[in-house]
Amino acid sequence: MENVVVEPADLAAHVDEALAVQAVAFGLGPEEVAIRRQIVLRHLADPGARALTAHTPGGRIVGFVYGLPNDRGHWWSSVVQPYLRREGNDGWLDDSFVITELHVLPDFQGRGLGRALITALTDAASEPRSILSAIDADTPARHLYHALGYRDLARPVHFPSAARPYSVMGAPLPLLR
Q: Cα 25 from chain centroid?
């Protein structure tokens, strides 16, 4: 993490830079980025939304995270609720802080930036727990989430237009260190 600063950010003002990170980290094409841009801006307009960036001394964003208090009326909640209910875990949708996106450029992964971003964001949450969704595969991201105390609440979860299944994960706050 040497020379990379993690701090609160006006992500709406830097949405294109952040989405460029997500496009590289998640393999998104221009059409998907354009769709996600509108979604991110809508999320960030929520009064409870908070965001952090990881950036170099020159200001280049190399990672970001944002989230907001969960609302059962949000699209994400409506998709995951049946899966959580099936597992007896739909109560996790209440009084939870959702990690909406967390991405770090591949060249900066493995340096603790993802951990620093998610723990700093959730440490400021007033909710007693956090939920998120992650691709349901043996990935470094899922290893990180498990190490922080997240556990699988429902899997596999299928999002419309997503080719791969996801897992919904939850953890009490504060996250494990």
A: 13
